[in-house]
Amino acid sequence: MSDSSLLPNYSLIPPYMLEEIINNGDTRQKDHASLTLIDINRLLITDPVPQANKKYDNINKNKLVRSISDAKNQESLPGILVRKEADPATSDIAVNEAYDYLGITYNFFWQKFGRRSLNNQGMPLDASVHYSTSYQNAFWNGERMVFGDGDGQIFNRFTIAIDIIAHELAHGVTESEAGFAYYGQSGALNESISDVFGAMVKQFHNNQTAAQADWIIGEKLLNSNINAIGLRSMSAPGTAYNDPLLGKDPQPDHMDNYISTRQDNGGVHLNSSIPNKAFCLAAKKLGGYSWEYAGKIWYNALCDKEMKRKADREGANFFNFAECTITHARLFSEQAARQVQSAWHEVGVW
Ligand SMILES: [Zn+2]
Q: How far is the CA of 76 from the centre of ligand 1 (A)?
């Protein structure tokens, strides 16, 4: 078993993005980015609350149970409870978005994969909004989702994009399944799995097939005056933004351009684009809705006990996961296995 005390707090915004703002922004922009970066670095060394594997007593494991709290621009959690399950909408858009998108993510995992919440044990879904002041990040701390308001100039409120909420929640799913350690290739795989489920939840919400989807993560998160279509592109990594404030999207689209770095936990938000693109290619090749074939294969690989044993014992890399997805694709058909294999081949993993 992996040591749950080593689980990190999963930040959405990588340090290198904030460092660009600190280098290129005006005084106000520098200040907000610096404060967020200090908090992200604090989160990295703070023990998270590893509850994804915890058994919850007295809960109906087959029921969706949400709660949204308002941190009132402070940094203590959870803040004041403002909306619990079955309560009507409030006048606060961040509260309502968090509540609705937690529900859609829960429904997606239940309807498409028969999974009850993140740990498949009906774990309640809790979130806090309005965390800190002009905070440019969202994170999952093992127990709850936490959203900043953004600074309004560069980043909009972090509840705005359903795939971001699903991305953070999917970290909880990965924790309770393969548990990919959050460093280097294994960490980039962990990040990629979150983008994969984030993209699928967005497509589920929009009722789009793999061919119709835009494969953009964090659409609308960046303000309209920033030259960006989102935070990341799964179909064309490295093209999500190119702006004087943020610099150019640094994500590679092939193993030939794999970034070796100690920053960002060994590039977990950088190289995640390689398995991201493999998933996008596989989903398009296999056709239909992404969760029908590619998503099911990725989900089954993530939940494969052999995958977990390998990840716990010696760590997992892109190749190990690719191999596992090809094995699961074969359960559909030989043709599906060939298509998944060719997707991994196109990004240089296979
Ligand atoms: Zn993440």
A: 21
Task: Report how far ligand 1's centroid is from the alpha carbon of 277 (Å).
Answer: 16
Active site residue 269: yes
Ligand 1 centre and the CA of 266: distance in Å?
A: 14
- Judge whether 95 and 82 are in contact, CB under 8 Å: yes
What is the tens place of the pLDDT at every residue in 103-125? 999 999 999 999 999 999 999 99
Q: Which two tokens stand for residue 271?
A: 């190289």
Distance CA 273, CA 254 (A): 8
For this structure, is 334 an active site residue?
no
Give the pLDDT mean for 72-97: 97
168, 175, 191, 323: which one is catalytic? 168
Q: Is 125 helix (H, G, I), strand (E, B) or coil?
A: strand
Residue 39 to residue 23: CA distance in whole angstroms = 18
Distance 245 CA to ligand 1 centre (A): 22
Would the pLDDT of 205 be above 90? yes
Determine contact, residues 347/255, Cβ cutoff 8 Å. yes
Residue with tokens 């806090």: 128
> Residue 115 phi/psi, 5° resolution?
-100, 130
Domains of the chain (ranges plus CATH)? Answer: 4-176 (3.10.170.10), 184-346 (1.10.390.10)
Centre of ligand 1 to C-alpha 333, Å, is: 32
Of 130, 171, 269, 328, which one is the catalytic site residue?
269
Cβ neighbours for 219, distance < 8 A, ≥ 6 positions apart: 161, 163, 229, 230
Query: If DSSP codes are grouped into helix, strand and coil, which group holds residue 261?
Result: coil
